[in-house]
Amino acid sequence: MVEQKLKAKNRSPGRPPRADTFGNASDLRDSILDHAELAFAVAGFEGANLREIASLAGVNQALIRYYFGSKADLFDECFRRRGGLLAGHRHVNLDRLLEISENPSVEDLVYAYLKPQWDMKYSSPNGAAFVAMQARLHAEPEEHALRLRREVYDASVKRYISALSQVLPQVPKDIISVRMAFLVGAYLFMLNDLGRIGDLTEGHLTSFGKDEMLDQLVRFLAAGLRAPA
Amino acid sequence: MVEQKLKAKNRSPGRPPRADTFGNASDLRDSILDHAELAFAVAGFEGANLREIASLAGVNQALIRYYFGSKADLFDECFRRRGGLLAGHRHVNLDRLLEISENPSVEDLVYAYLKPQWDMKYSSPNGAAFVAMQARLHAEPEEHALRLRREVYDASVKRYISALSQVLPQVPKDIISVRMAFLVGAYLFMLNDLGRIGDLTEGHLTSFGKDEMLDQLVRFLAAGLRAPA
DNA sequence: CTTGTTATTATTCAAATGAATAATTAACAT
DNA sequence: ATGTTAATTATTCATTTGAATAATAACAAG
């Protein structure tokens, strides 16, 4: 719209003077990642544009290449950064749950799985962006996207499948696996779509708060997982 | 990979002679839509490329413009064509169901909703492409994507919500609405992801046939919809 | 101090891409 | 016959874009 020049900071070339403000180890690198995350979220991989990312991050475009290599590499790094965090949280949650009791409820398990990403979404604009990024990634058929998802998430998903399988001995494990896929679909979609969901509820606008919405989702999914095979 | 020239058919310019084979009203137009559908499915809106679509469809690139206008318009038309069909099938299925009985089972309703797209996916490569396209569209945050989805699907979704609400009087209607959103998420994701789902099932590869998989999904979702509020 | 390495910018390159225009030919109406 | 409209191609245009290179400054090591 506005004919903005989108020019990066007007710093002169060359290594910048060491900032004495402390604690800024590779500050720009992170800034790039943050803005890339946002860009990928709203525009998708193809739609995002390196010039704009660079400019918003306040760096020269070539710096992206310097740190990350290609656009695809940048995307991967974005994804790994938060994805790893997420997977980590899930592991921790499961550990805790199993510590407390050998047979947690299905609801507890589902909740433990969903909560980390839920929190991430509402923790910051970047958290929300990551959720969107992920939703898009799941819709992409490319082999590369698939590998990335697997790399980041497979281990934790498998652990949850095992745990669920133990809590639901009536349901064969391969059915649990399939249901876990349903679960992922429902929650990703939902998380990404929240806010638009109101449209379906005609007049009486859904006044669910986020927490209540999460509860609803957990209840729904737990019931599905429990369904007699 | 191969340095293919991707050149369109070598027809001379000018209006083509009327084909006497009968029934080819605007043959090329359809060919464009078919190939666009495939392209959008694998590459997404931004990733798809008009030159390639034209070449695969065997037409000159300018013909796309002639028929559809811009790239965005082409996308919309793709979406409306099949989306309308789908929505239509859903309406018909619901009509039939309500004719037979005033209180169909939740399973029947869910099945009636899902089956048309399921069939579409397996009817042809283009049907599958449309499913993928749709999954991607749902992950896009753009206002435009949202409007399109609403235009094509809202009416039928609302009818199903009403029907479900009648069959499940214990569950408040706005909770049904929300659960319907979960349902859409789960089935879209699943439909698009089928085939990769096997990866989660460790050794014992999911030998679910497509029909059995649909049954599984219906059972899962019906249980979720029924869950006590 | 000199020299090499790291982090950063300015500038250039080459390709891809959506859009637009002009040309051409068949069908159709009068 | 003839002029108009419809359908199609060939060609050109302007911009965007990811990538690459060259220049520059700070810092670290000897």
What radius of gyration of chain A results from the CA coordinates? 21 Å
CATH class of the largest domain in chain A: Mainly Alpha
Helix content of chain A: over 70%
Category from helices, strands and their pairing of chain A = mainly alpha
Strand element count of chain A: 0
CATH topology of the largest domain in chain A: Tetracycline Repressor, domain 2
* Oligomer status: homodimer
Helix and strand run of chain A: HHHHHHHHH
Cα shape of chain A: elongated
Number of domains of chain A: 2
Strand content of chain A: under 5%
What's the architecture of the largest domain in chain A, going by CATH? Orthogonal Bundle
CATH superfamily of the largest domain in chain A: Tetracycline Repressor, domain 2
Please count the helical segments of chain A.
9
**Main β-sheet of chain A, in a few words?**
none
Low-confidence stretches of chain A: 1-6
Q: Biggest interface, which chains?
A: A-B, 63 and 63 residues
Averaged pLDDT of chain A, please? Answer: 88
Give the end-to-end Cα distance of chain A, rounded to a whole number of Å.
55 Å
Organism (chains A, B): Rhizobium esperanzae
Pfam families (chains A, B): TetR_C_30, TetR_N
DNA-binding region (chains A, B): 49-68
Region (Disordered) (chains A, B): 1-23
